[in-house]
Amino acid sequence: MKIHEYQAKDILRHYGIPVSPGKVATTPEQAEQIAREFGVPVVVKAQVYVGGRGKAGGVKFGETPEQARTVAGRILGMDIKGLTVEKVLIGPKVDIQEEYYIGVVLDRASQAPVVMVSAAGGVDIEEVAEQTPEKILKYVVDVRWGLPAFQARDLLERAGMPHIVIAQGGAILAALVRAFLESDATLAEINPLALTRDGQVIAADAKILIDDNALPRQKEYATWAEPEEANPLEFEAKAEGLTYVKLDGSVGIIGNGAGLVMTTLDMVARAGGQPANFLDIGGGAKAETMKKALLFVSRDPQVKGILVNIFGGITRGEEVARGIILAQQELPPGMPIVARLSGTGEVEGRALLADAGLTWGTDMRDAAQKIVAEIAAKGK
Ligand code: GDP
Ligand code: MN
User: 227 CB contacts (<8 Å, ≥6 apart)?
Assistant: First the structure.
């Protein structure tokens, strides 16, 4: 389950982590009022369930209470990666000297939480992870002991953080691991962990994901769920009995069956693409369902192309192909679609696609490579 920054910061505070204060507003007038209470300058931050708010224009400063109102007015209602901003967090602007990254993620390969530490924190951490992964130090945590503070300090030291950060930062990292474990989190990160000009180390941002399977025992966090606001499309899909999950890339993915869909996600990643979302249409879909699925997936503005991967059993290839052809007439012109059909009706389905001038993949890998290539070609 996703939670907002202000909620994640509440958890961190509970674990004794120094966090910049803040209050939530839903109107520009409230934002101005909060800015008066805290005193200026303030930072005004969009509260939406996606990262990269800074780069998307969802983090702004107010030098006066009036300016806080103006920027809050600009951020509220803004669309960030397909989500509408309904709330902003306002707090005193932190006088940041340096930005670091610390995080804990549940790592399936290690079957354990893995701590990540980098002296190169801030909005470009994704690029750091991709281009200079050696700048991110990783450490597998034994859940029996957690991470003692001395070990946390050692990690920060080895990540190249200055001495002024190590004592305070070590205590913060140890507390972050405790918060992660006790909250049944799958991710807990502070980016930036800020060194202020007066030598304080504080969490200027916080992101925590709670394991859905733990919600029955994490009762307080379970009450924080906002299904509709979190993602209107996910909410609508659930109401229609479809399994739809929003992700962060550009490829819309439709498949039948959880295993096949997961494999398709991996295949797209392997082909160098990133899934924007996925929709599992389950078994026995007819052309009309297929058409609906394509239109549904394409409503996510991040979708630049759609990959349909169907293993025909009860679901027939011709029905799938007909659905895709119907959908294509209503989709934005030029939206790349690649289908991979296998099993019942695959020959008939492919023939229909070929007649309609649509692309198909000979197998899953080929289909994934084709959609990634078509999207890349379109982007040029
Ligand atoms: P994100 O982009 O969604 O991760 O949002 P963040 O809260 O991390 O903000 C993005 C960037 O804005 C940070 O890396 C900082 O550079 C900057 N920023 C955010 N809050 C403050 C603040 O209080 N003071 C200063 N000086 N910069 C801030
Ligand atoms: Mn951040």
Answer: 234, 235, 238
Cα of 37 vs centre of ligand 2, distance in Å, is 24
Asked if residue 35 belongs to a domain, the reply is yes
Q: How far is the CA of 217 from the centre of ligand 2 (A)?
A: 28
- 101 is an active site residue: yes
Q: Which residue has the tokens 């070929």?
A: 354
Q: What is the DSSP string of 321-357?
A: HHHHHHHHHHSPTT--EEEEEEETTHHHHHHHHHHTT
Q: Is residue 307 part of a domain?
A: yes
Q: 157-210 pLDDT, tens per residue? A: 999 999 999 999 999 999 999 999 999 999 999 999 999 999 999 999 999 999
The pTM of the full predicted model, rounded to 2 decimals, is: 0.76
Whether 297 contacts 266, CB under 8 Å: no
Whether 34 shows a pLDDT value over 90: the answer reads yes
Average pLDDT for the chain: 95
Q: Which of 98, 99, 189, 346 is catalytic?
A: 189
Domain of 273?
A: 231-379
- State in Å: Cα 104 to ligand 2 middle: 14
Find the ligand nearest to 53 CA.
Answer: 1
Total domains in the fold of the chain: 3
276-286 pLDDT, tens per residue? 999 999 888 89
**Secondary structure of 197-237 as H, E, C letters:** CCCCEEECCCEEEECHHHCCCCHHHHCCCCHHHHCHHHHHH
Indicate whether 14 belongs to any domain: no
Of 301, 295, 298, the C-alpha closest to 323 is: 295
DSSP tag of 3:
-
- For residue 123, which atom of ligand 1 is closest to its CA? 14
Q: Which of 92, 127, 149 is the last residue of a domain?
A: 92
Q: Is residue 6 part of a domain?
A: no
